[in-house]
Design goal:
heterodimer; A: 76% helix; flat; B: 282 residues; five-stranded antiparallel β-sheet; 5 strands; elongated
Chain lengths: 125, 282
């Protein structure tokens, strides 16, 4: 197989090159995402410190952790990894197979382990 | 391979539609496919962790109660150290994306500057990880298992090579975290300590003071596997950094190699975001 990454001025590789002005815009976006990611992390840590597990508020906090994590992950993948700038076909080829497998795995893992937990509790009782 | 570098794209190797359906180079697409498979591996590990945790009927350790120390400082600082590690990794991800951006402008000096900072950030993270592991392994006060097979937690650590009697007000806590928590002091505490069958302090692969053995095993495997990714990321960054210094990528007319190692580096940050939430926060 020919290594097209070694080709000088390869059209796919140079397509991402941009001008000084476009760079300014992109850097602005990077700064925005940086601030957002840091703020979300800060909120997560504060919630983690002040709201204890087992309190009535905990389930809400737990789900907000999951949502905030997904928001962070989305920004990292879309902006830092430039997936949002790729073609739709590539985006789907990367995300869809992964998501199908993982949603299935999470579902089966949690269902099974919760069931196991119930059975063991019955044995211990 | 040197001759390959000056070749123009041969139309016959292209997709029949005249252009690649994904409009990316071979290398970048393969990096994405590798990352998908690596993401599946890490997801598998985190789901396995969740499986162990949900099926466990006892009290699973809580992140902020296990990780509450800072280097050189005494006291209780829950999650602060992990938050710092997360922040270091996010910032090194930002410097990486700035290096990629500089590469898109063919700004060699910019790439050198930001890539160098990224490598520094990577070393900082690895150092933090090493401290965290060392702290986790050495542990804090720990607990003893008495002759009648019950647990008593130490209030204060017994320094290595010393005995419990050298500690003023040596005391133990029975049923820690339970409903009938009781503090035992004085002679009774010393007797219990001297007649212990086991003293559990810190963590290893078979037993740990924090919770069930799987807890420490998952800690070692998940953060270790991630740390290994960070380490290899730093090595790849250094190799690409040397390439940038030599001007190899500048001659090609694009800094796609920086973009590709950048993808890997961002992925490492992405994994940490999930490890941070599911191992430390929840």
């Amino acid at each position: 197989m020919e290594r097209d990454d070694l080709i000088v001025n390869d059209s796919y590789s140079t397509a991402a090159n941009h001008s000084e002005e476009a760079g300014k815009k992109i850097r602005k976006k990077i700064v925005f995402v940086t601030v957002l990611l840091s703020l979300i992390t800060l909120v997560e840590v504060c919630l983690g410190i002040f709201i204890k597990q087992g309190t009535t508020l905990w389930p809400v906090v737990k789900w907000s952790f999951i949502v905030m994590t997904l928001v962070k992950a989305g920004y990292i993948v879309a902006v830092f990894m430039h997936l949002a700038d790729e073609r739709k076909s590539l985006r789907y080829v990367i995300l869809v197979p992964y998501l199908i497998f993982i949603i299935y795995l999470i579902f089966i893992g949690i269902t099974e382990s919760n069931h196991l937990n119930e059975i063991w509790q019955q044995f211990n009782a | 391979m040197a001759g390959e570098a000056s070749k123009a794209i041969d139309k016959s190797v292209l997709w029949g539609g005249g252009r690649s359906p994904f409009s990316v180079s071979y290398g970048k697409m393969m990096m994405w496919f590798f990352l998908v498979s690596d993401a599946l591996t890490f997801s598998g590990l985190l789901v396995a962790y969740s499986y162990a945790r949900h099926s466990y009927t006892g009290q699973w350790p809580i992140g902020e109660e296990v990780f509450h120390s800072l280097p050189f400082l005494h006291g209780n600082y829950p999650l602060i150290y992990v938050a710092l590690m997360t922040f270091i990794l996010i910032i090194s991800s930002v410097t990486m994306v700035l290096a990629v951006e500089a590469g898109h402008r063919m700004d060699k000096k910019g790439v050198i500057k930001w890539l160098a900072w990224t490598i520094v950030g990577g070393f900082f993270f690895l150092g933090s990880q090493a401290w965290e592991w060392s702290h986790f392994i050495h542990g804090s006060a720990g607990y003893i298992i008495s002759e009648d097979n019950s647990r008593y937690h130490l209030v204060e650590e017994v320094p290595h090579g010393e005995t419990a009697s050298s500690i003023a007000n040596f005391s133990l806590i029975a049923n820690k975290g339970g409903e009938s928590e009781a503090v035992i002091t004085g002679q009774q505490a010393l007797e219990l300590f001297n007649n212990k069958t086991q003293y559990v302090q810190g963590a290893n692969m078979t037993i740990n003071e924090y919770g069930p053995p799987q807890y420490a095993n998952f800690f070692f495997f998940i953060t270790g596997f991630h740390g290994f990714h960070v380490f290899s990321g730093v090595v790849i960054n250094i190799i690409v950094f040397i390439g940038v210094l030599k001007g190899i990528y500048h001659k090609r007319g694009h800094y796609e190699m920086v973009e590709k190692t950048g993808l890997y580096w961002h992925f490492v940050d992405l994994v940490w975001v999930f490890v941070f939430t599911f191992f430390y926060l929840i």
